[in-house]
Write a structure and sequence with these properties.
Sig_transdc_resp-reg_C-effctor, elongated, five-stranded antiparallel β-sheet, alpha+beta, DNA-binding, about 500 residues
């Protein structure tokens, strides 16, 4: 099976090269949309894109992993120290979306889209391997502490950032009596050098001891500090390497588990969405799936109305749906959200630490909101925003979002967008979303076009110039997000804007 998947990924690699010119045009437009955001990071990505295309032209790769590893090594040379990959994950997904957009214009088949998807999934896996493992269980850290070869009192995991080093986890050996509040206080300490943290931890966790022996073990983006029980104990380089390998092996296992988790979640979500048979099914399955397969407990879904630039509540999970369906708000009322939608190409989830910063007080109070995630329900190939999902972990609950969840969120938003797009016209009618407001004159023009009149015939009937009718038709096409005047007429009939 692995050979089949690799063949598909290689096919995706060839497609990238074939789409180089149209992709670079799309990238140019995306850069303009993101000009107010992270200019340095966008420039770095552009350098990597050019580097990647140049190597695809000059080199033959036996596997996609060889090409991905080439990119990773190049990136690590430019960024030898750890950097937060939250925005990098979004940019990788944005690049993938542009390729899907180009493929759709080429009328590419489903398998070609899958080939590109498999390739970018492998890139995301590689990025996520640099992320911090979640400490779901301290047992393996205590196992390291209790090794007879190096008897120790405590172990601290230090996260190495660009300018700061932070105590991320502290574990004490069995039999060592330490105040838990003191341990909690230690987790979060920051300093410019690990040695400074070693001194601070020694004073807090080993009071009364005269400069205990602290062993330092570098491990990729982290450093282990281990306090040896006996100051006179000699810790050899071989023992340090054993501890280092133990830690790195567990990191690898944690990452592998996390990778499988986000992939499994997106696969299960897709399987649920496939069962949808109507607009009503679609909104229910999207809202429930976002709660069932991601670490959230409540979800409210809003359909976006471009004509009014507003959001209309359509469904909720673990929130009273009826109350959500009464909500209809103009996006202009939310300056931060408006800025976000303008500059982030409608596809990036946004984490809000305090909902009061973005939502009116009445909603914060009525729904007991604290931390919040706003997820665009988005169609990548059409660069089209369908709706927004608001997610949290319960009443008045603060939380953070890790990069594994972010990756799954991006995919969930796209899968939900593609599904809801199939039923969008039905959803507009079912949930009373006013997609666009046509003037009386625009309706008159569109009715004549729907009846088969030409531009000149419509102009004569309405006693207007043909140029004026063309202007009306252009405005109608834009409001209805239609491909041409015929498509606009068909959509208007479905939406009952004309009879």
């Amino acid at each position: 099976m692995e050979h089949k998947i690799e063949d598909l990924a290689i096919r995706g690699l060839f497609l990238l090269k074939e789409c180089e010119k149209p992709f670079l045009k799309e990238w140019f437009h995306l850069k303009k949309d993101m000009k107010a955001w992270q200019n340095d990071l966008v420039s770095e990505f552009e350098n990597m894109i050019v580097y990647g295309f140049n190597n695809l032209s000059r080199t033959t790769f036996d596997s996609t992993n060889d090409f991905i590893q080439l990119l990773v090594l190049k990136w690590q040379k430019r960024h030898p120290e750890f950097v937060d990959d939250f925005d990098a994950i979004f940019l990788i997904s944005a690049v993938e979306n542009l390729f899907h957009k180009v493929l759709k214009r080429r009328n590419a088949g489903f398998l070609e889209h899958q080939a590109v998807q498999v390739f970018f999934t492998r890139i995301l896996d590689k990025v996520l391997r640099t992320q911090q493992p979640e400490y779901k269980d301290d047992k393996w850290l205590k196992t390291m502490l209790n090794l007879r070869a190096v008897p120790s009192n405590w172990l601290a995991v230090i996260r190495n950032d660009k300018t700061q080093h932070k105590v991320n986890k502290v574990v004490c050996a069995d039999g060592i009596s330490v105040n838990e509040q003191l341990v909690t206080m230690c987790e979060g300490l920051q300093a410019q050098q690990p040695a400074d943290l070693a001194t601070a931890l020694s004073r807090l966790l080993s009071p009364g001891q005269d400069q205990p022996q602290i062993v330092t073990i570098p491990c990729l983006t982290e450093t282990l500090l281990i306090c040896v029980k006996d100051k006179a104990e000699t810790v050899t380089d071989e023992q340090k390497e054993t501890l280092r390998k133990m830690y790195l092996k567990q990191m690898k296992l944690n990452h592998l588990e996390s990778e499988l988790e986000w992939k499994d979640a997106t696969l299960l979500f897709q399987q649920v969405l496939i069962q949808s048979r109507s607009a009503s099914d679609a909104v229910k399955m999207i809202t429930q799936g976002l709660v069932d397969y991601l670490p959230f407990s409540r979800c409210a879904l809003f359909i976006y109305s471009p004509g009014e630039h507003s959001g209309v509540g359509v469904h909720a999970h673990n929130v009273h749906t009826g109350s959500v369906q009464h909500i209809k708000e103009s996006i202009a009322e939310f300056p931060l959200l408006t800025k976000y939608l303008k500059h982030f190409s409608h596809s990036k989830p946004i984490f809000i630490e305090d909902a009061a910063d973005i939502l009116p007080g009445k909603y914060v109070r009525d729904y007991s909101l604290k931390s919040l995630v706003v997820l665009p329900i988005y169609v990548p190939a059409e660069n089209k925003l369908i709706g927004l999902a608001l997610l949290d972990r319960g009443e008045n609950t603060s939380f953070t979002v890790d990069n594994q969840t972010l990756t799954a969120l991006i995919k969930f938003g796209q899968y939900g967008g593609e599904l809801l797009n199939q039923y969008y016209e039905d959803a507009v009618q079912l949930f009373g979303v006013q997609r666009a407001v046509l003037t009386i004159r625009e309706r008159e023009v569109l009715k004549l076009i729907a009846e088969g009149a030409s531009i000149n015939e419509a102009a004569q009937s309405l006693h207007l110039s043909s140029y004026t009718v063309r202007d009306y038709i252009s405005a109608i096409i834009q409001k209805l997000d239609a491909k041409n005047r015929t498509d606009a007429a068909v959509k208007a009939l479905k939406m009952r804007l004309i009879q």
